[in-house]
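2.7 Reproducibility. Because tokenized structures are sensitive to small changes in the input, we list the exact sequence used for Serine phosphatase RsbU, regulator of sigma subunit, including any N-terminal residues retained from the expression construct. No trimming or masking was applied before prediction.
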Amino acid sequence: MPEEPRRPKAAAGRLALALEALGRSPDGAGPEELSTQVRQLALGQRRLRRLLDAVVAMSEDMDLRAVLRHIVEAATDLVGARYGALGVLGSDGEFVDLITVGVDEERMLAESGLPQGHGLLVGLLADLKPMRVADVGADPRSVGFPVGHPMMTTLLGVPLMVRGRAYGNLYLADKSDGAPFTDDDEAILTALASVASVSIENARLYEDLKQAAMHFQLRMLPELPDLSPLAVEVRYEPASELPRLGGDWYDALTLPDGAVCLVVGDVTGHAVAAAPVMGQIRNMLRALAYDHGGPPSLVVTKLDRALTMFTEPPTATLVLARVEHTGGEYVLRWSNAGHPPPLLVEADGTTHFLAPARHGLPVGVEPSFGRYDDEHRLPAGSTLLLFTDGLVERRGEDIDATLAELADQAARLAGVPLRRLCAELVTGRGQLFDDDVTLLALRLPGEDPVRTSGRATGP
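Resulting structure tokens (single pass, no recycling of outputs):
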């Protein structure tokens, strides 16, 4: 039979037995002392492996608070402490956040609040050196524990430095075996803090990049006009992971003939390249709809032809709609170019997906392809939802099921203000988005639903 691979524990045990059989080692150490040294070596190797695992976990996560929690959990595990905490400093030097292990963080913060500018922790930040305290209560720098804070006896803390400045402090209290903190504990915590500073800086840069991308994307999207007596609201949510630039867009405007024009579209492809293409298509479509007019199918046809000016014509899906007020009622006329169908939510919660009679190709695919219009009466008080596929497409889930889920949720929210409706439909489910998401909502005047007031705003 093949020989089983040697396990570290078994190898250490055999080495200890061999040393014991020899009786004495060349340097005069006895078998018990050598066995202790072997055990300490094995413990050090296990600590090193756990430290490396912690470094990998921190480097893989780009969410700043998740990185901070990784740091506290790794420190507590590596040293074998009962309690761990990481206090984060603001620009004014005061604590602005606290991440804990071993205590009820929410309850403690509610009862005690964040650490104050005095006591042992402030001394740690003032010296910017590791601190070990054998008896917290007896230390002259101690000011006691606030209400709701667990009693602690021993303390080991190190400052967290990011780019030469104190970002916060990492401290542990009371080892699980009751032993005091050692030089080895201090060394491994210092090593962890040093590595952690790199992960913290990376997470901060990642967060800054996300915010910059989001700001750039929103600057490319329009502010919604006042369409009274119609109420309009929009919600845009970028993809959960970088790059957070995408090809989603929306628009709403009053046309020269008094009709309201609505559009929601999605440029094919992702990343940085989709954003400027989105801006070009949005502006072209707006100009065609406003200056040339005509039914939605004609405007989309003109866009198809205009896209041929590109060497490699971009493609996009979209819904272009006209809301007309004639004969005392509102009528929706729209053309669908390969896009998810609009969802109509009546005042009583009845929902209808307005699927086109004939499905259209995305724009930019074939300029000679025929475009068609569909028409539907909009009841008083109803809400029209135009959205991109990022709202309903999820990995591993059937699109029909997610569309039905959207309709059910929209029906339950039929009477709430538009801003809340959009927020609940987009972010209320707490999901992560693989693609950017746009939701444009238009509500007709009526007695049943709650009307939003004032000028409609963007996301």
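Residues 35-211 form a domain with the Beta-Lactamase fold (CATH 3.30.450.40).
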